[in-house]
Amino acid sequence: MTTQSRFDEFNEFFSQIHNPEYIHHVPGTITCSRDAVKPAEFYFFSTPSAMAKQAEDARTMLQNTAYLMAQMQSHFSHLQPTRANELSNTLYFRKPSDRVVKKYSLATMRLALNHQKQDYAHAMVMPHVDRKVLTEFLTDLDQDSVTRL
Predict the structure, then answer these.
(1) SS (HEC) of 33-76
(2) pTM for this structure?
């Protein structure tokens, strides 16, 4: 339950970031708002301090993704690393060994490229992934490359 003025305030704010063309209106409820905790979470995550933290997390994720991409292009070009765009925190690359896949819980897929099936993996750089984790990952890829020779 809420007051009309709170709903109007929410609707104005939410419509700036979510305006799905296919239903021609802004949804009138917060996702999962029937869960008693979700409105409190929504309120917390929409506070100025929480928004600033989310913006900082996003900047850090994108910087770390760019760093990982540059390192992989420089040292592991045989893995053919690629990224959808500069706003993506996901890197796609040729599948490394099962040991590396398992250690980092990499998602894998079999893609048909140039009429051949090839194994690929992807990693998502999340807020908890810092340069220490990325360095360990790159070291494991380096050891993986040496082992495969």
Answers:
(1) CCCCCHHHHHHHHCCHHHHHHHHHHHHHHHHHHHHHHHHHHHHC
(2) 0.71
